[in-house]
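Q: We require from you a single protein entry containing the residue sequence and its fold in token form, and nothing else.
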Amino acid sequence: MSDGMPNQGLGCEAQLQAISRFCAALIAVPATRGLPAALLAALCDALRPATAGLLWRFEPEARGFVAAAVVGDLGPLVSGVTLQAGDVFLAEPPDWQTASVWLSAEAAASGAAALRPEQRTALAHVLRADWLEQGMLVLSLRADDRVLGVAWLFAAAGQPAFAAEAAPFAQRLAEVGGLALDRAQRAEAAAQPASTQQAGRARSEALAALSHELRTPLTTIKGYATALLLDEAQWSADEQREFLTLIDRECDTLQAMIGEVLDSALIDTGHLGIELEPVRLPRLAREVTDEVQRQTTLHRLVDDFPADFPLLLADPRRLRQVLRNILDNAVKYSPGGGLIVIRGEVRPADVVVSVADQGVGIAPEDLIPLFDKYFRVKSPTGGHVPGTGLGLPVTRAIVEAHGGRIWAESKLGRGTTLFFSVPRDDRALPDGD
């Protein structure tokens, strides 16, 4: 920490210099999201003996103050706690608009008594006795008579204690900090309409594409079902079976699309369920490979797993979904057929599964957004490739929920290889194995 200004005896010139350094520190912040941490650090730097602090920011949606930044040895941010004005100021009105100096641990503890019991418990690591030995400084961060935040500053043991004379100058700095918070909030509000409009446009385009993709199998199902119901048509047994087979296949396609949409919604709300149990991945891969092989005569699917491939602790239903999504993509993006190889590799900390095809490949610029929601790789042949654009994003979410990662390597015209990893876990091994 650089030389800060003492709490007593500040002349006008010294105060101006301190305010100038304080403002320079705030202006240097490159993004508004980093402002709370920079503001709190600048307050501690200018208001010695402060060596640690916690900044509470008012959040209208939470209808209270939430922890936004911490400086010094106070532990991590307090999460899941919302303080009301009387609690965060450790006081009652009209003291909410001014700085408060607690000159002793007893005074600070008396002020903290306004906190509700569950809040005192949650904040115990901040309001420790060793930090309160020198008291604390409570600052109101305001703009246009609106309280935007509150800063708690603490002095370490062995440092001079806060003095009452420090309060007026400290509040001057806090007012500058409040203006900086107000500027950041206004900048975020100004940027929000553009980002909201862009997100709305992307969502509309995605819904239009999704409705088109859902309509395609429905049209096929409706067409063949109507044909079978025609009284004047006489279909042979082979033709009837062919129609029913196509209907069954399109029903599977429709079911898969709806499943991707539902899984995407679960991911957005943080409710994608993972149920772990011991899984033999080579056996699971063989089952999925056989299912996909039955649906194509142009491709030859081969699996290659070492004999010592370990048992994994994973969700078999979700891993089956991962394998199916990747294999389906390999088939769709190799319309000319060819070999598709699914291979397993054992590493010390995890296993890696790869699926390589001999298809059209992916352009380098498309590899980065490949796993983004609604992104669709364009076929170099210009043909339409069915899908919702949700399969790979859902696949990535499932892999990451297992603690693994997913990536791709590809060259145009020479095929694509998708890789995903799953961590090894000795708990998956049965007793005695």
